[in-house]
Amino acid sequence: MMRSATFFFIILPFAAVVAWLSLQAQSSFDLKASMERGRSLYAAYCQSCHGAEGLGMEGVFPPLAGSDYLMANRQRAIQLVLYGASGEITVKGKVYNQPMPGFDLSDREASDVLNYIRNAFGNKGDAIMPPAVKAARK
Q1: Is 73 exposed, middle or buried (0-12, 13-18, 19+ CB in 10 A)?
Q2: Residue 105 class from Cβ within 10 Å (0-12 exposed, 13-18 middle, 19+ buried)?
């Protein structure tokens, strides 16, 4: 009986508060504002290779527009922006093997540029918030 009471009067209310706080943090995140900030970061860091419309350059720089590779794995997308990549990748059925540098961005800047890329060029992705970027750092 004591265990049941502990669960119902202590653990369950605590879990409810944690869940509520988590939802509050998510609902207060302004994806539109993040994307606006991300647009200028994209222009500064990404556009020279991936192009103004995210189309890349076939065989050299992969497209971000409609990118199955980018959208398939949030964690990998964060790691790409932070640390870059080398080696072969396949995007929309085409192989690319051009190194990509990582960028020295704050958690918020990385979140912003990813939110822009993942929601521009015909892409539709969920928000990547700064704490997710922080957690992805090596």
Answers
A1: exposed
A2: middle
Q: Is the pLDDT of residue 20 over 60?
A: no
| Tens-digit pLDDT profile for residues 88-131 | 999 999 999 999 999 999 999 999 999 999 999 999 999 999 99
Residue 98 resides in a domain: yes
Rounded CA separation 89/22 (Å): 35
Residue for token digits 């918030």?
Answer: 129
Q: Centre a 10 Å sphere on the Cβ of residue 67 and count the other Cβ atoms it contains.
A: 21
For residues 78 and 16, give the distance between their C-alpha atoms in angstroms, rounded to a whole number: 30
Q: Quick one: DSSP state of residue 120?
A: S
> Can you give the length of the chain in residues?
138
* CATH at residue 82: 1.10.760.10
CB 46 within 8 Å of CB 127: no
